[in-house]
């Protein structure tokens, strides 16, 4: 009875795909202009966009990953979710509204606003595509592990096929629906994910008389090896001085990275005004916060009801904690639902990443650099975005198949570290520092990107340890797997030094325009009526 | 809500207007109201988060002290991070609705010529 049923799992996922495809096709009927395709006509309401942001942000890594980390490593898993949540305050207070008021489709719009267009746009597009690609690769590779777990497909060929199917579906969503379709997929997925997690949370709590302390106690009893240590910090990161520093570095990248993730930033352009952008973040903060509270219960609940031995023995290890808990609670049907939600999660996140990367290429590189602004808002911009989406989709299918089974945690860490190092300093400087100029922007973007990638390549995540990407090579000169503690301050410093050393005095009129527009919303892109 | 597609060339205020508005008292007021809230609050929540991370990283004994049943100091501290995030969110929205939006709207109408 209590067995996973791959056919049931696939059927439920199939229903999700059909429903979302229907919604995407309906949503695409009004997609005509570039603003429709790339920014959903700026017509979503704050609450809708807030739900979509939660859908974009709560990736499989944060659902399966955090629940699993709490189940196996206890408190240290919980630490992730706090960084992921607190990070939203930076987006709310410092970035969302000002960005909505000054930009059009991409992060590059804001960064290049008062700078020399072409070099800064090229830099912003490079970093957008780097972050999106690392994130995309992690999601696609993660899909392989998930398939093994949920569909019982363990062969490399079968997993490659499923990765290709996920990639093809994602390309279809993005091509047909553009930003509007993608947003609806994220809204549907977020509702399913949060509702599913909420039901399981109440179920787990109900088993323990709605007493969190009893859930924690049961998790301790079920884990004789970790025991009481499960409830306090340090099980995963507290072993050595280096691992503690590594955790501090990760915590910095998490809290500073979110507001620099291009696929999150782009979501702020889908609402009509800055005030709606603010409402979206407020909705996102509540939904994401509540969801992470659910994962706390689910993680310890999985530890208590499934136990670490069964989780570790399952394919996908930590990632299987939440699905196994679903099986334990509600049998194959609940597992099927949770499995479908997990797939939907990957699908929605990769679609969001793909449209972001393709928008940056079409808008920053094609329309503004190659065509020098002549192609902006023309049909060719949308056409280039669609072609780019196909290319990115194919590359990420290939990359996902190659990276399948690799240690992918470092890819997500890398995406957040690049976002925190290359993007956030540049965004903050251009919004708040009058003197900031083109040279400073280039130094902080390229410098932050280069330092982060170099440190990751030289880290133990890539070589020198049994869990590294290249186990047999040994060039781990930098001791930490998370570069943030070095790369973030360095990038801020580079932006400062690059500005000061340059003779460029920054255009005061453009600075006035940007500052007035960012704070008042005058001249901001308006919504489109159909 | 304006529903006309934005056409930059016809309604765009000229460069001089931006400089004028930037130098106006109303704008200085708006800017200072925004910055006086977001900068200190950002510093505060980042410091509070950092304190929490450092305690979780380097004060295992303290964080593992049990308070009620199996609920320990670390869990309470962690949940307080959720509470502070929700509280700051609410306070900022109240501040923005009351003190920022009316002034921003006034300036926006001035710049865009009394609305379209």
From TrEMBL, chain A:
Q: Mind telling me what this protein is named?
A: Cation/acetate symporter
Record's NCBIfam families?
Answer: sss
**What GO molecular functions are on record for this protein?**
acetate transmembrane transporter activity; symporter activity
Q: Topology in the membrane?
A: Multi-pass membrane protein
Q: Which Pfam families match?
A: SSF
InterPro entries tied to this protein: Na/Glc_symporter_sf, Na/solute_symporter, Sodium:Solute_Symporter
Cellular component GO terms, alphabetical: plasma membrane
Which keywords label this protein?
Cell membrane, Membrane, Symport, Transmembrane, Transmembrane helix, Transport
- GO BP terms, alphabetized: plasma membrane acetate transport
Entries under CDD domains matching the protein? SLC5sbd_u4
Give the UniProt subcellular location, in the record's own words.
Cell membrane
Give the transmembrane region(s): 6-25, 51-72, 78-99, 120-141, 147-175, 187-206, 247-269, 281-302, 333-363, 384-402, 408-429, 441-462, 482-501
Q: Provide the family line.
A: Belongs to the sodium:solute symporter (SSF) (TC 2.A.21) family.
Automatic annotation (TrEMBL), chain B:
Q: InterPro entries per the record? A: DUF485
One Pfam family of this chain = DUF485
This protein's source sits in the domain of life called Bacteria
Q: Where are the transmembrane segments?
A: 37-55, 67-93
Alphabetized, the UniProt keywords read: Membrane, Transmembrane, Transmembrane helix
> Would you tell me the protein name for this molecule?
Uncharacterized membrane protein, DUF485 family
The scientific name of the source species is Lentzea xinjiangensis
């Amino acid at each position: 009875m209590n067995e996973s049923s791959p056919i049931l799992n696939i059927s439920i996922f199939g229903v999700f795909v059909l429903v979302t495809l229907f919604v995407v096709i309906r949503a695409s009927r009004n997609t005509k202009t570039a603003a429709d395709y790339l920014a959903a006509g700026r017509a979503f309401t704050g609450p809708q966009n807030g739900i979509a942001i939660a859908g974009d942000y709560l990736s499989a890594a944060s659902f399966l990953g955090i629940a699993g980390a709490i189940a196996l490593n206890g408190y240290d898993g919980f630490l992730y979710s706090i960084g992921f949540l607190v990070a939203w305050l930076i987006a709310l207070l410092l970035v969302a509204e000002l960005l909505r008021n000054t930009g059009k489709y991409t992060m590059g719009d804001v960064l290049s606003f008062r700078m020399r267009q072409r070099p800064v746009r090229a830099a912003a597009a490079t970093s957008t595509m780097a972050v999106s690609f690392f994130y995309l690769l992690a999601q696609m590779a993660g899909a392989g592990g998930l398939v093994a777990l949920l569909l019982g497909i363990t062969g490399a060929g079968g997993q490659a096929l499923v990765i290709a199917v996920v990639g093809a579906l994602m390309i279809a969503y993005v091509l047909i629906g553009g930003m509007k379709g993608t947003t609806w997929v994220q809204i549907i997925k977020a509702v399913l994910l949060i509702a599913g997690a909420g039901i399981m949370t109440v179920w787990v709590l109900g088993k323990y008389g709605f007493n969190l302390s009893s859930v924690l106690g049961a998790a301790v009893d079920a884990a004789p090896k970790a025991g009481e240590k499960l409830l306090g910090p340090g099980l995963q990161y507290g072993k050595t001085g280096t691992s503690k520093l590594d955790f501090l570095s990760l915590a910095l990248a998490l809290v500073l990275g979110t507001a620099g993730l291009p696929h999150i930033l782009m979501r702020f352009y889908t609402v009509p005004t800055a005030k709606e952008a603010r409402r979206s973040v407020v909705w996102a903060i509540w939904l994401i916060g509540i969801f992470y509270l659910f994962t706390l219960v689910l993680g310890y609940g999985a530890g208590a009801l499934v136990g670490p031995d069964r989780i570790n023995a399952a394919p996908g290890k930590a990632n299987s904690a939440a699905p196994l808990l679903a099986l334990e609670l509600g049998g194959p049907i609940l597992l099927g639902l949770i499995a479908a939600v997990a797939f939907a999660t990957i699908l929605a996140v990769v679609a969001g990443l793909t449209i972001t990367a393709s928008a940056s290429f079409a808008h920053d590189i094609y329309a503004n650099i190659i065509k020098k602004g002549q192609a902006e808002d023309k049909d060719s911009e949308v056409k280039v975005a669609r072609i780019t989406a196909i290319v990115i989709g194919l590359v990420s299918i290939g990359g996902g198949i190659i990276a399948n089974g690799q240690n992918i945690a470092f890819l997500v860490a890398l995406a957040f570290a690049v976002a925190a190092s290359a993007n956030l300093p540049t965004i903050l400087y251009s919004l708040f520092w009058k003197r900031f100029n083109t040279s400073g922007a280039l130094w902080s973007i390229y410098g932050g990107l280069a330092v982060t990638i170099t440190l990751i390549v030289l880290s133990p995540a890539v070589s020198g340890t049994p869990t590294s990407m290249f186990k047999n090579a040994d060039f781990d000169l930098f001791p930490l797997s998370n570069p943030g503690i070095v790369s973030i301050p360095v990038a801020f410093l580079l932006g400062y030094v690059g500005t000061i050393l340059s003779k460029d005095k920054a255009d005061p009129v453009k600075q006035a325009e940007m500052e007035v527009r960012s704070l008042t919303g005058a001249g901001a892109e308006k919504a489109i009526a159909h | 809500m304006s529903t006309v597609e934005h056409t930059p060339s016809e309604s765009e205020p000229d460069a001089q207007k931006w400089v004028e508005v930037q130098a106006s008292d109303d704008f200085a007021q708006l800017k200072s109201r925004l910055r006086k809230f977001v900068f200190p609050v950002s510093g505060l929540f980042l410091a509070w988060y950092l304190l929490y991370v450092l305690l979780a990283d380097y004060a295992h004994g303290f964080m593992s002290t049990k308070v009620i049943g199996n609920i320990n100091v670390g869990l309470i501290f962690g949940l307080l991070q959720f509470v502070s995030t929700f509280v700051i969110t609410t306070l900022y929205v109240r501040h923005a609705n009351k003190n920022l939006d009316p002034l921003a709207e006034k300036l926006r109408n001035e710049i865009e010529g009394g609305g379209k």
